[in-house]
């Protein structure tokens, strides 16, 4: 009897709920693509901190795009999130994007944020004075990422390979901590982790991305699905980036304050990173997307990096690079500025 009463009460509740729902007016918020927030990932790199400025100054909204900006403590985690479909867009290097495409992810570069011109470094302990001195030493870096790539470039220049060192694959923050603790002899890190690594007494920079111009460009990368389904939102993301650069130029101290806070360093320390990162202007974006025969051209750089990634075993097979770049959004922004 008790069970039957409970069932009767449940039936009444269910019918009441259905009636209430059917009588409730539809909400104004649509479930269409345009109302769904773009999941944009970013992580600790001076060329990507401006996205924090865009968020805090409400520049996404000003450019009519709904963005859920997601911070990742680990850069590799953001790459994996885009591959897994948890993000619609991410901030990535060219070599990491090529690696993702080689693994089957359909990703497209639509904007150049910057080039690394010294903020990616191989830092060594006292007593190591040349790349040749790395032979047999413990060297840490986040496997498969840009500083691993930089390390391999340096080793190749000196006639060495990864087999000649004791490579320690560690997440970038953990790699910096291991170096400071004296657990490894050298480390490959990017700013702001370079500051932490250089706090080890006697440590110094052995070489950096400055020694390999054009090798490490950084980008806004989106899924092809986002381009196909919401091209105007991709355009708005690109527009927001350039609006952010305008804000930073007009309000440098405010921008530094926002970016330094996100980086977890002082404003003075953050300003030191400026020389190591070349933020690309609109004109430099247009030039980068143009065909060329040196590393200033993205298509050329992609070909060279792809070959290198295969040679070093970071990818098994070079991907088709014909569709990895889409310059229409940068070009559309440039055309609008002229009109």
From TrEMBL:
SUPFAM superfamilies given in the database record: Periplasmic binding protein-like II
PROSITE patterns per record: PROKAR_LIPOPROTEIN
Main location: periplasm
UniProt-listed Pfam families: NMT1_2
Gene3D superfamilies attached to this UniProt entry: Periplasmic binding protein-like II
Annotated GO CC locations: membrane; periplasmic space
InterPro entries referenced in this protein's UniProt entry, alphabetically: ABC_SsuA_sub-bd
Subcellular location: Periplasm
GO MF annotation list: ATPase-coupled transmembrane transporter activity
Keywords: Signal
Cleaved signal peptide residues: 1-22
Keyword Signal: yes
PANTHER family assigned to the protein according to its UniProt record, in alphabetical order: ALIPHATIC SULFONATES-BINDING PROTEIN-RELATED, TAURINE-BINDING PERIPLASMIC PROTEIN
Family in the record: Belongs to the bacterial solute-binding protein SsuA/TauA family.
The protein, known as: Sulfonate ABC transporter substrate-binding protein
Organism (species): Chlorogloeopsis fritschii PCC 6912
Lineage, uppermost ranks: Bacteria, Bacillati, Cyanobacteriota, Cyanophyceae, Nostocales
Gene name tied to this protein: ssuA
